[in-house]
Request: fold
Amino acid sequence: MTDKRRPAESGEFQDPLENYDPKIYSDPLEKALAEESVAAIQYRPAAFATPNTPIHKAVEQLANLHVACLLIEEEKRLIGVFSDRDVLDKVALEFDQIKDKPVSDVMTKDPAFVYESDSSAAALSVMAVLGFRHVPVIDVKHKALGIISPQRVTTFLRKHSLG
Amino acid sequence: MGLYENIRSERVSRLSLRDPVVVHENATVRDAIEAMRLNQLGCAIVTDRNRVPQGLFPESEVTRLISKNSAALDEPVTQYLKTDWPTVSMTDPIARVLEALESHNVRFLIVVDEQGQLAGLTGQKGLMEYVAEHFPGQVIVQRIGGNPYPVEREGA
Reply:
């Protein structure tokens, strides 16, 4: 038995973390996925709208801001997202009939999200496992803080994969 | 080998490629949108007779068109085709996909074979799945969404 692993019965103070062997990762990206939080992935700026925003205004907002997704908040709580995919699937061919209706009619309700303190792997999991492209980042009060887009994850992956 | 080495040595053909939505060059924007909806894909590709890609029509362009003029739905899709869309070859290393996605800020990449003919489609989703496959212990097991703690006490 090495001195490092001597038992506590010796009477001397023993730091319980003394015997802790840090996890060894096979890859820098694996380490980043496990140890870096969502905050390590850029999630701001983000664009917001309210649920009663008319659909045509929300579409204009997406186009004018050159973003692919709006965070829809009601009373400072995230209730949905409205993305390019919602425009394609629910709005594009019906636009003239529904453009004045509220965006809440066509948004994606109750989207999968991550907390700011979650690991960066959690954001990747939402994309790779659930297939959602845009992952809202929220705080404990369910207020949206920002959004993780595939582009932002790609930048994170590149930073940790290509050196 | 770790991901660092793998993305340099493994080829694009190793990614799970998606079947592209191909529309005729005479198709309208409406036709392209209907095909994209039917196939649940965010882009459509126009090819020539030899299946060489002529350009890509992305869903972001749908949003832009609708915001400006919804009458554009009945115009030819070729008017709004992105003809300089980046392509990767089946034999390119996966690192090339990562670089192309970031440098062009796009979601999809057209994959071509050695003859330059359309072979498939890849992009951010394929890349995420590839990373998840490498690190299932980190990525697949994550709690997703929902409340991290039980709202009510469990049991008696």
Observations:
- The helical segments of chain A are 28-35, 55-65, 84-91, 95-98, 120-130, 150-161.
- DSSP finds six helices and seven strands in chain A.
- Chain A touches chain B through 53 residues (CB under 8 Å).
- Residues 150-161 of chain A form the longest helix (12 residues).
